[in-house]
Amino acid sequence: MRLFVAIVLPEAVQQQLSLLHAELPGVRWVRPEQLHLTLAFLGELAEQQLGLLGKALEGVSFEPFTLQFGRLGCFPDQRHPRVFWIGLEPNPALQQLAQQVRAAVRACGIVLEERLFSPHITLARLKEADPRQVAALLTQQPVLPEVAVDAFLLVQSSLSARGAQHRVLRRFATPPHPTWPTAG
User: Fold this and answer.
1) What is residue 123's predicted lDDT score, i.e. its pLDDT?
2) CA distance 180 to 183
3) Is 80 in the active site?
4) Half-sphere exposure at residue 162, Cβ-oriented, CA atoms within 13 angstroms
5) Would you say the pTM of this structure is higher than 0.85?
6) Which of 21, 80, 120, 177 is labelled catalytic?
7) Whole-angstrom Cα distance, residue 153 to residue 135?
8) Closest to 1 measured CA to CA, from 151, 159, 160
9) Which of 39, 8, 35, 36 is nearest to 19 (CA)?
10) What's the sign of the alpha-carbon dihedral 55, 112, 40, 104?
11) Which residue ranges in the chain fall short of pLDDT 70?
12) What pLDDT, on a 0 to 100 scale, did the predictor assign at position 184?
């Protein structure tokens, strides 16, 4: 199973981001329903590891917080664009959540990339895209609302000729606040 841990964006934000789509040769846009913020990419895991992984992720504790969108950009850079993304403003609560998720995953013996966490939403993958056209995309600055975060997901990603298909395996939410009433 190919897995990752992510925060999914609300549908309204997904739709707003899809307005950036332009018909450009060599650009493959991420479908709106697939837009997410990856906290940790786990890669291929055996189904037997899900129980231990689920228990470890249940131990991640965080207070709800909000995400604010930043600027548009490219990886590795604008001259050689391969990924078109929108960044997120620096947020200590998000960094802490990502660190906890990654620590929980590593505690299960799962090896993660040693790359620094760089919070962004991948909007498109570029193959031989014209850097001038990409530069034009980068001049756009969508106005997006803050996104409230009170949960993260364990997601299975299946690759096919039609692209990746995502299926949510588990949802991990912040614990209810002790002074808030609970449904009985």
Assistant:
1) 94
2) 10
3) no
4) 6
5) yes
6) 120
7) 33
8) 159
9) 35
10) positive
11) 175-184
12) 45
d(CA 165, CA 58): 25
User: pLDDT at position 98, please?
Assistant: 97
Strands 2-8 and 151-160, bridge-based pairing = antiparallel
CA nearest 37: which of 160, 138, 149, 175?
149
Given the residues 21, 36, 80, 166, the one annotated as active site: 36
- pLDDT the model gives residue 141: 82
21 tagged catalytic: no
Q: pLDDT digits over 127-142, tens only?
A: 877 778 888 888 888 8
